[in-house]
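Service request form, structural biology core

Requester: graduate student, group of Dr. S.
Request type: structure prediction, single chain
Budget code: on file
Notes: please return the result as structure tokens.

Sequence provided:
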Amino acid sequence: MSSTGKDDQVRKIFVGGLDYDTVEATLEQYFGQWGPVSECTIKRFPDGKSRGFGFVTFGSLAAMENCFENQPHTIDGKGVDLRKAADSGPNSGSERSKVYDPEARELKKLFVGSLDYTTTEEELNEYFSKYGDVISVAISKYPDSGKSRGFAFVTFQSGASVDEVQQTRPHVMKGRKLETKRATPKHLVGKPESQVSTTKIFIGPPEVRAKGHSGLSEEITDEDLTEYFGQFGNLVKVQQMRWEDSGKKRGYGYVEFTDEDSVDKAVLVRSHFIRGREIEAKKALTRQQMKDIEDIKNNSGGVQNMNMNNMGMGNTGMGMNNLGMGISNMGMGMNNMGMGGGSMGMGGNPMGMGGGNMGMGGGSMGMMNSSMGMGMGMNNMGAGNTSGGRFNTGGMRSHNVATEQRGTKRPRTAVDLEAKIMRKLYVGNLDFGTSEDDLKAHFEQYGEVEEVNI
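Core staff response, request fulfilled:
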């Protein structure tokens, strides 16, 4: 960049939050009161409509500094956000990138699920082209067979096309109702809350605070919030929380929309700038939704843990590994028991080593009618514990086998086939590029999917 270009960049400011009817001449006239303006531009869509922000380059650094010293600024009845285009602060680049841009790349991408498996990319292109120019269509396919996985991603030339698609839901192709939604925000990928639907957002200071002011200030009015978030959809209400004793703002609040898609869009943008303050938007969840998410996080891998805990129960292979140990400990159990009159209380089956059966009770090896794991039966056998004719089952329920006939079935608690644990499926050996949307689209062919968690 030439020295002249660098000088221009130093004297250049970003102007956000402009009224869509504001023109360059208005900007030049307004900022001209602080000094000469060498250049003034408003960023526009291809159809000529304003994108709500622009840039102004002053003729001198003194004029620019004078302008910043006289904040806040209001143009055409709207409070605008000013930032130095050449701010040397470490977070300046990230802050500028967070300013709401309706044409940001992530706002042009659409997820399309529940596709008929015969649907082609050409058919999708033809269908969605009526909402605007389509840059690309990509149907996700299985690498081995090349068959469709039932979902795709459509990227438009303009974010306005995605808005129109979402405003005209539902969409039907080949007799199937399509699921269309915005791309999952990067900061929510893999998190349960990304799959939660709500019409309400929480607004407040960002989790990771960058350089500058953040959170709802006393200067931000409900009208400011209504005007700003009205860009994302129709509002039901806005609410700024206050301290009961002083009446001052607590720095956060809520915005409720009529449509879940408006929430998805606001959360996708994530950081918003209102009157020079950075505000982060998150999905506002009910207590039940938060509890469900916490349960998912706590129980992630619960299927694996359950299987591991149950490996000793009714697992013949595991029991067989312990077979030799149980028999080798038989002598020790015999020696320590004093035989108890020649009987271990094993259902009336004598130890009778001379009889050659080692007290196996007809070959059951103390398995208590095979209802317990074979390994557990052998472990108890080696322990030689005959207190009162009961087996010590290591914390499990003890049964008096002296009064219980072989083959008698004990009552069991009925299993609820619709319990959450019965509806949960572990899926392993996933490709590292597989997303939650991929899994959901695949398993929906077998029934309604409640949640997916990678």
